[in-house]
Amino acid sequence: MFAKTEAIIPAPESAHAIRAAIDEALDAKLKGEKRVILFNLSGHGYFDMTSYEAYLNGELEDYEYPSELFLSQ
């Protein structure tokens, strides 16, 4: 919805904020309330397009982070 309306593909991190803002707007509309709703669009997702494509096509592979790279506490 956001991408179609604003012609911006949000970064994955920003997409969560956008969804929350949309949910708040829909809730305000349902309750007949006026609200000021702010969110942070921290970046576009154009660099993430190949990952989006892989996800939508079911082509992402699970990656197990090597245990020797974990920092010991």
Question: Could you describe the 3D structure shown?
Answer:
- This protein has about 70 residues and is mainly alpha-helical.
- The protein is built from 3 helices and no strands.
- The longest helix is centred in the first third of the chain and has 20 residues.
Summarize it.
Helices cover 45% and strands 0% of the residues. The protein is mainly α and 73 residues long. The longest helix has 20 residues, at 12-31.
Structural class computed from helices and strand pairing: mainly alpha
Strand residues, percent? under 5%
> On the 0-100 scale, what is the average pLDDT?
86
Oligomer: single chain
* Separation of the first and last Cα atoms: 44 Å
Largest sheet: none
Write the layout of secondary structure elements.
Layout: H1 2-6, H2 12-31, H3 49-56
List keywords for this structure.
single chain, 73 residues
